[in-house]
Amino acid sequence: MAASDIKKMGPPIPNSRTAMFENGSHLAMYGEQEAYFDHLLAFLKDVDESKPVHA
User: Fold this and answer.
1) Residue 17: φ, ψ to 5°
2) H runs (alpha helix) in the chain
3) What is the DSSP code string of 10-21?
4) CB 21 within 8 Å of CB 28
């Protein structure tokens, strides 16, 4: 799937985010652990604090 396709998928889903990991392949959690978990933890923190999440 192309990056442009991924970027189109997030906005229609309320409170979603998308992130691109250039070296993550299908398992960004392994290929780019630091970036993956930085994005994941920021998202979870915003959800926990009931902050609006932007794509």
Assistant:
1) -140, 150
2) 3-9, 28-31, 33-48
3) STTSTT------
4) yes
Are the beta carbons of 30 and 38 closer than 8 angstroms? Answer: no
Q: pLDDT tens digits for 3-23? A: 788 888 888 888 788 888 887
Helix locations, 10-32, DSSP H: 28-31
**Amino acid symbol at 25:** S
Residue 53 vs residue 47, higher pLDDT: 47
**What region does 14 belong to: left with phi over 0, alpha with psi -120 to 50, or beta?**
beta
| Residue 54 Cα to chain centre, angstroms | 10
Report if pTM > 0.85. Answer: no
Q: Residue holding tokens 């604090």?
A: 49
